[in-house]
Amino acid sequence: MSEQLSPDAPIKLAMSVDDILQFRGLPYPDGYSAHRVVRSLCRSFASHGLPAVYSFSNTSPAEADSDLFRAFDAWCEAGNHVGNHGHYHASLNWVDPKQYIEDIQRSEELIGRWLGQAPTRYFRYCMDMWGDTEAKTNEVQAYLASAGYLPAPVSCWFYDAQFIVPYWRTLVAGDDEARRWVQDKVVESAVSQLKSQCAAARKIHGRDPIHIGLMHGTAVMADTADRILEAYQDLGVEFVTLEEAMADPANAIHPPVTTKMFRNSTQKWAEYAGVDVEGTPPRKLLAEVRAVTPVDGMSEEEVLGTIMLNAAQAFGAQPAFDEFDW
Predict the structure, then answer these.
(1) Do residues 50 and 240 touch, judged by C-beta distance below 8 A?
(2) In this model, does residue 1 exceed pLDDT 90?
(3) d(CA 323, CA 326)
(4) Is the dihedral of CA 237, 183, 157, 152 positive or negative?
């Protein structure tokens, strides 16, 4: 063990995975698939002794390929659980509460049999965005309560979705050196963000809350999850269930702030408490990663921007790109 994240005790962390089907309009790189990524992540979780992990996946990619639903079978057969993440993966900021609630219901219709296998009915707001007005948040929260869902936030993330497109470019270009460099950078981000967000949470709450971590069901995560989990264990992290994490008031109580910005719960608590969270966001690192191995038509704006546009336009809305400040 190289160092401890806390002077008091090991940090407890419940890992979770979003979007194991990726996103509508985003194919997997050649040689990868939802099934391969799920199998790889499940092997990594098992080899590092993680308890059951919840996935929260938008279901819109399965509109074009119903075979993708088999990924949920593989996920659950490995002892993991499924939560609701809505269908189109639009931010509540972009749509009205009625549309957002109908989107949750649509996803439940599609994955209800996997949701029913989980010990707890969890929902995760897309991009952990709980709405840009208090009225929106309250209306959706009221629906979740009536539908028997607990909203599961993210308290520690490392911007791994911003590595999807650069990593894909290195694979398309066959640039093995750049591919390894991107892998190193995502591990670096995972470690530095965990350190900064745990330190901020300790300052905010006067203790170490149990954290809820996040990675996505992508090629770059399939290829780096082992290294990330090993690095976390070297920092003394103890992996726990989402149920244990949700028993911590820092997760069960939503931070008393309303923001349109892309922020997780620790970053929102920090805004309320006036605490700085180093690397929110890690602009220099993400700029370096965005610039690696240019390929025509494969910039972050062209790929991820189009995905967000598609998600919003499914509701007749438009995304607000200024909410993502990297």
Answers:
(1) no
(2) no
(3) 9
(4) negative
CA–CA separation, 260 vs 96, rounded Å?
14
| Beta carbons within 8 Å of 88's beta carbon, 6+ residues apart | 24, 58, 60, 103, 311, 314, 315
**Residue whose pair of structure tokens reads 């009205």 in the numeric block:** 96
Nearest CA to 242 among 314, 180, 153? 153
Cis peptide before 7 (omega within 30 of 0): no
User: Hey, which bits of 182-273 come out as E strands?
Assistant: 211-216, 238-239
In 3D space, the residue among 9, 68, 61, 20 whose CA is nearest the CA of residue 42 turns out to be 20
- Render pLDDT for 47-88 as a digit per residue (tens, 0 to 9): 999 999 999 999 999 999 999 999 999 999 999 999 999 999
Give 313: exposed, middle or buried? Use CB within 10 Å, 0-12, 13-18, 19+: middle
Sign, CA torsion 195/200/206/207: negative
Residue-level length of the chain: 326
CA angle 286, 290, 292 (to 5 degrees): 120
All domains of the chain in start order, with CATH: 12-315 (3.20.20.370)
* Contact (CB, 8 A) for 179 and 171: yes
State how beta strands 150-151 and 238-239 pair.
unpaired
Q: What is the pTM of this model?
A: 0.97
Model confidence over 140-150: pLDDT tens digits? 999 999 999 99
